C-alpha cells in the first residue's frame, strides 16, 4: 500500500507541476487535420440573442414587486454570466492560435522589399480578418458580462431595499378578519392568475399524458417515486454497510454513518426531482411562469430534505450509539417527529406562496400566505420547545446524568425561544413580513448549523484517522515523509483546527448570505464572493491553486528534511570540517531551504509579488514598532552562521555567562553551562557585546594555575621543586610550554608562590586543578611544610 501511495503522490505531483500540461500536450502530438478550416466564430445573431436574453432578464427584474420574486432572475443572470464565460473560453484558444500564425507570417513587407507570393498575402489577410472578428466578438462578450455583473449588483441593492421595506411594513394583525379576507374571497384578478396557472399545468400534463407518451411518463414518475422512497432506504443501507465494514472502528465510523444518512437522503431526492423535471420537459420547455415556479419549488424541496435528512442523521433514534451530539435518548425521541412535521408543512405552505409569487398575485395574498407560514412555524417550534423542556425537567427530577446541557445547546434553546416570542409579537402587531423573516432565518440557521456541525465532526475524525500511526494511512505518511508519531499527531491537530476554523467561518457567512430557498450553488457562489474578494483577487489566489501549493509545501519539506539528513549523516562527516562548522552549514541549509519552500508555495498559489507591496508596508510598520528586536536577532543569526565568530562547540564567556555553544538558532543561541543547564542568549548580544571565545581556532590551551602562601621560614627552592615535581608528574599537564613557579609576593604574613601549567583544553582546567591541589597538599604534608595561616581579622 505504501508503494502505491507513493506512486499516486508522485503522479499527482507531475501532473500539477508548472508546465506539465505542456509536456502532456506535446506527448499527444499535433492533430492530423492541421490544415483544416478554423472553428466557426460566434455569429452576430448569437450575440443579439444573448443581448435579448439579458434584456428579458432586466424586464423581469423591473417587474418584481417583492423580495422573493428576485431570486429566480438572480439565478438566471448568474447562469447567463457562466454561459458568456464558456463562449469566451471557447474563443480564446482560437485567438491565441491566430496570433501565433500571424506572428509566423510576420508583417507585410515594405514597398522596397521584393513582393511576396500571392498565397502568403491572401493567407495573412484571411487570418487577420478572422482574428479581427474574434477580437470584436470577445469585446462584445466582455461587455455583456460586465452588464450582467452590474445587473447582479443592482439586484442585490433592490433586494436589500425591498427586504428593508417589507420588514418595516405594517399590515393588519393576524387577529383581524380583514387580514384573511383576500384568502377567503380573492379578487377577480387573483382568480384569473390562478386559473391561468392551472391551465398551464393542465397543458403540460396533457403533453406528457398524450397517447404514446403515457407509458414513458408513468415509468419516469414511478421511477422517481421508487428512488425517493425505496431508493433512499437502499442507498442509506448500502452506505451504512460500507461504513461499518470498510471504515475503521472509532469516531470516524460514527461521523461517517451520520454523514452517509444525510447524503443518501439528499442525493436520492435530487435524482427523483431530476426525473420528474425531465418527465415534464422532455418534449417542450415549460412556460415562463411554470419555469419560475419549478425553480423555486426545487429549492424548497431541497431545504425540506435537508431538515429531515440532517435531523435523522443527528438524532439517530434507531441507533443511539451512532449519535454525534450529546443528546439524551428521551430528548431525541421527543424531537424525532417535529423535523418531519416542519418539513412537510413548509413544503406545502411555501409551495402555495410560490404559486402566488410566480403568477404575480396581489400583495395581500402573498402577505396572508406569509402569515400562515409564520403561524405554523411558530406552533410547531413552540410545541417542540415546550415538549423538550418538559422532558428535560423530568430527567432532572429523576437525577439523570444525561439531562446535563452544554452551553451551546442552552444558547440555541434560548435563541429559538426568543425568536418565537418576537415572531408572536410581530404577528399580533401586524409585522407579518418580519415574523416570516424570523421564522425562515430560524429554520435556515438550523440547517446551516446542523450541516456544518456534521461536516466539522467528519473532518475532525478524518484528520485523526488519516494521521494516526495505528492505521495504514498514518504508517504510509510516516514512512514517506520520515516523521515521528508526535509530528503526525501535531499535523493532525493542526489540519483539524484549520479545517474546523474554515468551516466555522463558512457557516457564519452562510447564516447571513443564505436563507430558505438558497441552492448549494448560490451558497458556494456567495461564500466565494466574500472569501475571494478584491484582496484575494489582487493576490491572484484561486481555489485551483490550493492543491498545487499544498503539494509544493509537503514535497518541499520532505526534500529539505531528506537532504538535511544526507548532509548530517553522509556528506559532512566525511569532510575535514570540524563539527561546529558542519552544524552551522546544516542549520544554514535548512533555513535557506525552508525560505525557498515558502516562496515556492506562494508561487504555486499564484501570488504575484508585485501585489505584495501592502504586506511589505505592513511589515515595515511592525518592524519599526515591535519586530525590530526579532529582525535584529534574525540578521545576527545569519551573521553568526556565515561569518562564524563563534560556532557550535566553542567555549565562550559573555556577560558573566560561560559555557559551551550547543546550538545556533535563527533568533537565539543556546549555551550549556557546567551544571548542564541551558542559557538562551539573543544573537544580537553575541554580535554587539564583548565576547570571550576561549576555544576560537580549535587549538586553545587551558591554564591550570595555583597561588599558595607559605610562612617566611620555609626554603623557597625546596617548595619550588616540590611544586614543579607535582606538575610534571600530572598526566594532563603539557611538557611544552613547561610548568613554572613564580615568586608573586613577599609580605610580613608570608611568601606567595604561583605555579602555572598548561593543559590541552580549557574544559579540563577545573578537574586538573583539583587533582593538583590534592597532590600538592599530600607532598607538602609529607615534607613537613605547612601553608601560612591567614591573618586574624
UniProtKB/TrEMBL annotation:
<feature type="domain" description="Mechanosensitive ion channel MscS C-terminal">
    <location>
        <begin position="709"/>
        <end position="786"/>
    </location>
</feature>
<keyword id="KW-1003">Cell membrane</keyword>
<comment type="similarity">
    <text>Belongs to the MscS (TC 1.A.23) family.</text>
</comment>
<feature type="domain" description="Mechanosensitive ion channel transmembrane helices 2/3">
    <location>
        <begin position="587"/>
        <end position="628"/>
    </location>
</feature>
<dbReference type="InterPro" id="IPR022249">
    <property type="entry name" value="DUF3772"/>
</dbReference>
<feature type="transmembrane region" description="Helical">
    <location>
        <begin position="503"/>
        <end position="524"/>
    </location>
</feature>
<dbReference type="Pfam" id="PF00924">
    <property type="entry name" value="MS_channel_2nd"/>
</dbReference>
<feature type="coiled-coil region">
    <location>
        <begin position="127"/>
        <end position="161"/>
    </location>
</feature>
<feature type="transmembrane region" description="Helical">
    <location>
        <begin position="612"/>
        <end position="631"/>
    </location>
</feature>
<feature type="transmembrane region" description="Helical">
    <location>
        <begin position="407"/>
        <end position="431"/>
    </location>
</feature>
<dbReference type="Pfam" id="PF21088">
    <property type="entry name" value="MS_channel_1st"/>
</dbReference>
<feature type="domain" description="DUF3772">
    <location>
        <begin position="139"/>
        <end position="199"/>
    </location>
</feature>
<protein>
    <submittedName>
        <fullName>DUF3772 domain-containing protein</fullName>
    </submittedName>
</protein>
<feature type="transmembrane region" description="Helical">
    <location>
        <begin position="365"/>
        <end position="386"/>
    </location>
</feature>
<keyword id="KW-0472">Membrane</keyword>
<feature type="signal peptide">
    <location>
        <begin position="1"/>
        <end position="25"/>
    </location>
</feature>
<keyword id="KW-0175">Coiled coil</keyword>
<keyword id="KW-0812">Transmembrane</keyword>
<dbReference type="Pfam" id="PF12607">
    <property type="entry name" value="DUF3772"/>
</dbReference>
<dbReference type="InterPro" id="IPR049278">
    <property type="entry name" value="MS_channel_C"/>
</dbReference>
<dbReference type="InterPro" id="IPR006685">
    <property type="entry name" value="MscS_channel_2nd"/>
</dbReference>
<feature type="transmembrane region" description="Helical">
    <location>
        <begin position="256"/>
        <end position="279"/>
    </location>
</feature>
<dbReference type="InterPro" id="IPR023408">
    <property type="entry name" value="MscS_beta-dom_sf"/>
</dbReference>
<feature type="transmembrane region" description="Helical">
    <location>
        <begin position="585"/>
        <end position="606"/>
    </location>
</feature>
<feature type="domain" description="Mechanosensitive ion channel MscS">
    <location>
        <begin position="630"/>
        <end position="695"/>
    </location>
</feature>
<feature type="transmembrane region" description="Helical">
    <location>
        <begin position="338"/>
        <end position="359"/>
    </location>
</feature>
<dbReference type="InterPro" id="IPR049142">
    <property type="entry name" value="MS_channel_1st"/>
</dbReference>
<dbReference type="InterPro" id="IPR010920">
    <property type="entry name" value="LSM_dom_sf"/>
</dbReference>
<keyword id="KW-1133">Transmembrane helix</keyword>
<feature type="transmembrane region" description="Helical">
    <location>
        <begin position="437"/>
        <end position="456"/>
    </location>
</feature>
<keyword id="KW-0732">Signal</keyword>
<dbReference type="InterPro" id="IPR011066">
    <property type="entry name" value="MscS_channel_C_sf"/>
</dbReference>
<dbReference type="Pfam" id="PF21082">
    <property type="entry name" value="MS_channel_3rd"/>
</dbReference>
<feature type="transmembrane region" description="Helical">
    <location>
        <begin position="544"/>
        <end position="564"/>
    </location>
</feature>
<dbReference type="InterPro" id="IPR011014">
    <property type="entry name" value="MscS_channel_TM-2"/>
</dbReference>
<dbReference type="InterPro" id="IPR052702">
    <property type="entry name" value="MscS-like_channel"/>
</dbReference>
<feature type="transmembrane region" description="Helical">
    <location>
        <begin position="214"/>
        <end position="235"/>
    </location>
</feature>
Amino acid at each position: 500500500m505504501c508503494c502505491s501511495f507513493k506512486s499516486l503522490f508522485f503522479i499527482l505531483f507531475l501532473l500539477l507541476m508548472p508546465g506539465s500540461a505542456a509536456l502532456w500536450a506535446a506527448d499527444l502530438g499535433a492533430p492530423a487535420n492541421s490544415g483544416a478550416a478554423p472553428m466557426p466564430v460566434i455569429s452576430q445573431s448569437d450575440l443579439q440573442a444573448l443581448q435579448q436574453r439579458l434584456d428579458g432578464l432586466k424586464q423581469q427584474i423591473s417587474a418584481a414587486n417583492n423580495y422573493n420574486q428576485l431570486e429566480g432572475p438572480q439565478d438566471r443572470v448568474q447562469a447567463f454570466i457562466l454561459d458568456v464565460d464558456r463562449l469566451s473560453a471557447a474563443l480564446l484558444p482560437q485567438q491565441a492560435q491566430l496570433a501565433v500564425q500571424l506572428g509566423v507570417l510576420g508583417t507585410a513587407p515594405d514597398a522596397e522589399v521584393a513582393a511576396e507570393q500571392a498565397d502568403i498575402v491572401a493567407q495573412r489577410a484571411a487570418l487577420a480578418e478572422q482574428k479581427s472578428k474574434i477580437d470584436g466578438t470577445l469585446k462584445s462578450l466582455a461587455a455583456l458580462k460586465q452588464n450582467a455583473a452590474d445587473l447582479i449588483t443592482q439586484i442585490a441593492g433592490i433586494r436589500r431595499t425591498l427586504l428593508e421595506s417589507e420588514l418595516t411594513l405594517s399590515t393588519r394583525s393576524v387577529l383581524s378578519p380583514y387580514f384573511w379576507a383576500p384568502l377567503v374571497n380573492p379578487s377577480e384578478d387573483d382568480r384569473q392568475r390562478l386559473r391561468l396557472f392551472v391551465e398551464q399545468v393542465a397543458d403540460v400534463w396533457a403533453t406528457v399524458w398524450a397517447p404514446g407518451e403515457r407509458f414513458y411518463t408513468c415509468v419516469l414518475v414511478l421511477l422517481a417515486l421508487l428512488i425517493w422512497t425505496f431508493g433512499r432506504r437502499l442507498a442509506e443501507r448500502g452506505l451504512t454497510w460500507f461504513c461499518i465494514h470498510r471504515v475503521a472502528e472509532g469516531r470516524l465510523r460514527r461521523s461517517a454513518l451520520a454523514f452517509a444518512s444525510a447524503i443518501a437522503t439528499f442525493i436520492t431526492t435530487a435524482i427523483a426531482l431530476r426525473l420528474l423535471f425531465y418527465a415534464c420537459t422532455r418534449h417542450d420547455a415549460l412556460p415562463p411562469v411554470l419555469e419560475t415556479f419549478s425553480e423555486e419549488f426545487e429549492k424548497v424541496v431541497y431545504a425540506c430534505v435537508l431538515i429531515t435528512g440532517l435531523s435523522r442523521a443527528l438524532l439517530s433514534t434507531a441507533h443511539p450509539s451512532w449519535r454525534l451530539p450529546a443528546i439524551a435518548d428521551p430528548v431525541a425521541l421527543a424531537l424525532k417527529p417535529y423535523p418531519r412535521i416542519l418539513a412537510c408543512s413548509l413544503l406545502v405552505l411555501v409551495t402555495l406562496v410560490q404559486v402566488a409569487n410566480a403568477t404575480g398575485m396581489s400583495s395581500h395574498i402573498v402577505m396572508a400566505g406569509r402569515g400562515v407560514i409564520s403561524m405554523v412555524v411558530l406552533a410547531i417550534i413552540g410545541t417542540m420547545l415546550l415538549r423538550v423542556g418538559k422532558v428535560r425537567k423530568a430527567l432532572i427530577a429523576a437525577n439523570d446524568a444525561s439531562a446535563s446541557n452544554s452551553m451551546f445547546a442552552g444558547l440555541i434553546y434560548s435563541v429559538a425561544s426568543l425568536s418565537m416570542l418576537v415572531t408572536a409579537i410581530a404577528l399580533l402587531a401586524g409585522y407579518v413580513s418580519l415574523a416570516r423573516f424570523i421564522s425562515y432565518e430560524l429554520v435556515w440557521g438550523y440547517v446551516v448549523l446542523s450541516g456544518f456541525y456534521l461536516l466539522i465532526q467528519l473532518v475532525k475524525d478524518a484528520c485523526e484517522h488519516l494521521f494516526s500511526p495505528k492505521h495504514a494511512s498514518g504508517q504510509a505518511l510516516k514512512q514517506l515523509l520520515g516523521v515521528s508519531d508526535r509530528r503526525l499527531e501535531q499535523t493532525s491537530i493542526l489540519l483539524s483546527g484549520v479545517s474546523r476554523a474554515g468551516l466555522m467561518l463558512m457557516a457564519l457567512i452562510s447564516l447571513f448570505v443564505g436563507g430558505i430557498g438558497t441552492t448549494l450553488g448560490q451558497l458556494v457562489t456567495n461564500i466565494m464572493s466574500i472569501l475571494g474578494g478584491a484582496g484575494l483577487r489582487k493576490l491572484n489566489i484561486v481555489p485551483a491553486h490550493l492543491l498545487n501549493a499544498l503539494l509544493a509545501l509537503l514535497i518541499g519539506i520532505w526534500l529539505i528534511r531528506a537532504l538535511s539528513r544526507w548532509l548530517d549523516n553522509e556528506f559532512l562527516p566525511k569532510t575535514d570540517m570540524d563539527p561546529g562548522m558542519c552544524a552551522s552549514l546544516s542549520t544554514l541549509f535548512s533555513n535557506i531551504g525552508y525560505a525557498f519552500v515558502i516562496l515556492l508555495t506562494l508561487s504555486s498559489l499564484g501570488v504575484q509579488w508585485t501585489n505584495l507591496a501592502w504586506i511589505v508596508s505592513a511589515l515595515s510598520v511592525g518592524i519599526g514598532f515591535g519586530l525590530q528586536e526579532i529582525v535584529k536577532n534574525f540578521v545576527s543569526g545569519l551573521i553568526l552562521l556565515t561569518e562564524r565568530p563563534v560556532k557550535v562547540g566553542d567555549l565562550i564567556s559573555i556577560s558573566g555567562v560561560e559555557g559551551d555553544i550547543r546550538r545556533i538558532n535563527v533568533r537565539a543561541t543556546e549555551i550549556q553551562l557546567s551544571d548542564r543547564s541551558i542559557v538562551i542568549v539573543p544573537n544580537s548580544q553575541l554580535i554587539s557585546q564583548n565576547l570571550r571565545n576561549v576555544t576560537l581556532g580549535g587549538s586553545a590551551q587551558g591554564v591550570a594555575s595555583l597561588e599558595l602562601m607559605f610562612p617566611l621560614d620555609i626554603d623557597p627552592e625546596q617548595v619550588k621543586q616540590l611544586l614543579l615535581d607535582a606538575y610534571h608528574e600530572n598526566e594532563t599537564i603539557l611538557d611544552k610550554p613547561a610548568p613554572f613557579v613564580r615568586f608573586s609576593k613577599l609580605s610580613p604574613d608570608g611568601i606567595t608562590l604561583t605555579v602555572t601549567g598548561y593543559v590541552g583544553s580549557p574544559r579540563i582546567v577545573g578537574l586538573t586543578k583539583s587533582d593538583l591541589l590534592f597532590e600538592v597538599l599530600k607532598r607538602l604534608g609529607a615534607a613537613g611544610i605547612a601553608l601560612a595561616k591567614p591573618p586574624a581579622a
